[in-house]
Write a structure and sequence with these properties.
17 helices; transcription; about 375 residues; single chain; two-stranded antiparallel sheet; binds adenosine-5'-triphosphate; DNA-binding; Arc Repressor Mutant, subunit A; Rossmann fold
Length: about 375
Amino acid sequence: MNGKNDKLTKLTAHKNDSIIVGSSKPTMDMRHLIEIVASSNGPVLVCGPTGAGKELVAEEIHTHSARSGKLIALNCAAIPGDLIESELFGYEKGAFTGADKQRIGRFEQSHRGTLFLDEIGDMPLALQSKLLRVLENHSIQRVGGKSDVKLDLRIVCATHKNLQDMVEEGTFRADLFYRLNVFPITVPPLKQRGEDVLELLTVLIDKRREQSPGVPLPVFSQNALTALMSYDWPGNVRELRNVVERAFIIFSGAEVSGKHVRENLLTLRVPGVVPEEENNAMWEATRDLPGHATGQVFGSDEAILPQPEDYRNWFEHDDHIDLRRHLRDIEVVLIEAALQETGGMVSAAADRLNIGRTTLIQKMNKLMIAKDIKVSSPSPRHP
Ligand SMILES: Nc1ncnc2c1ncn2[C@@H]1O[C@H](COP(=O)(O)OP(=O)(O)OP(=O)(O)O)[C@@H](O)[C@H]1O
């Protein structure tokens, strides 16, 4: 890393033997729980929203256990319901058409190791009772088989669904739920552990750099970091990983500003850049506004701001305007300009904008604007 990203690394990197990145309290608490539970052989239920790191928790539990076997995974949502049984239990030769030789299933593959059943909420009801029996008896029968195979099993399940609700609806067996829920671990959504964002960003940038050495890094400005930290992350760490991916593609070797983050990287929340036609239409429609044609609006001591009334004939130029977006853009530009003018002094900027300091701070938080606005930032490679 170079420049700001170097600083970022020093600020946020921490050394430990965990694959779970993050030093926020919720993450540390979760890691502590994992350490406690890893050494037991009981089932663990990992809950949390999609992309938050449930699979990583399963990996960590296995790594910290003393179990000598492998970590074997099965995603119950990714396999058609009628195939899950043979995937899990394996089958004997001739058990069904196409079973031309014996096959060992995931239960047996995970003997002395850990079986990770992802999306357990998607397991068909009929199989749920079979899983319960395995948990009680510590043995399985292959499909088409007659004898029991004794196994040393450790099961970790994960779900983003609310199993308790499913139990009430009758779509998840209560007895299995209580058997699995002995040791629940909840992976909090990323928005509840905002302090982890910078650490994760550093690690994800490093990982991405390892994949393509020689590609110049995107350099995140302070504003960009502030914007990332104030975002809600509905897609959690997976979404952050996608943001890093996009940053490498769009801003390789360039500085990423807060505006770039809002408009180019967090496209889930803020739709992409204004299409060129929309931009042109905006320019066409405002070129006749007072001051615009003469460059006075931004260029002269006698600048005249466009007046609200001047927008009255907007629809003579275009059929639509995204009002919320337009008003938000004006707010962002003026607040950033005021902060720049006052060297990041919030009270002074609030004076210039004729609003209260608290109001300005609320707006800065909402619009993800940092105090220390950069004077200029290079354009992205492919804006
Ligand atoms: N704390 C973390 N530290 C480092 N990487 C993380 C962390 N949490 C998640 N990731 C990364 O984010 C991505 C998504 O994580 P993971 O697949 O574990 O999420 P999940 O909760 O199992 O999602 P889903 O419910 O959609 O399967 C992976 O690339 C994972 O490596």
